Amino acid sequence: MGIKDDVADLITAPGRVTVRGIAEVRDVERQMRQTLHKLGSYLDAFGPVVDRAQQVGELIDRLGPVLDDLHQLTADARRIAIAAEGIAVSAAGIDASAKGIDSNSKGIDESAALIARDAATIAGALPTVERLTDIVTPLDNTVERLGRFVDRLPGGRKQAPA
After folding, report:
1. What is the pLDDT of residues 13-36, one digit of tens each?
2. Distance (Å, rounded) from C-alpha 6 to C-alpha 131?
3. What is the pLDDT of residues 74-125, one digit of tens each?
4. Domains of the chain: which residue ranges?
């Protein structure tokens, strides 16, 4: 006969219960109390673990949008890197153009020096040209009258047929 049978007899036939059976029931009760006490200790110890698990769950929930943002930032960084490569290529072209402009500007500087020299020469001759103009202007009417006079001389300008 086992402990189950003794417990069953205690419930169904209280008159047949033995001292040994009562002692076994009390022993089972004591073991159950000890087990429940240990279980309570385990549950008490497990409480902080549950709290930590809940905190980890909350962190994971908050981590989702951060990971989405990180993914977007990574994609943006790739696009920026591609754009930077294009800018580097453009910068190299601009540098080459600048070198050509620098080379051309040397020729422009030389041409500007020649123009400045020739302009100074022309400016130096300008007073002489002005004096000649002053001298020749009054002679315009005289030259015109002289031309008409020469046309009247024999052998002068031929008359157009009428």
Report:
1. 655 556 666 777 788 888 888 888
2. 152
3. 999 999 999 999 888 888 888 888 887 877 777 788 888 888 888 888 888 8
4. 3-151
Cβ contacts of 16 within 8 Å, gap of 6 or more: 9
pTM of the model: 0.35
Which contacts (CB < 8 Å, 24+ apart) does range 39-42 have? none
**Residues in CB range of 10: below 8 A, 6 or more apart:** 17, 21, 22, 25
Dist CA 97 CA 91 (whole Å): 10
CB atoms within 10 A of CB 25: 16
- What is the spatial distance between Cα 56 and Cα 128, in angstroms, rounded to a whole number? 101
Whose tokens are 């005289």? That residue is 142
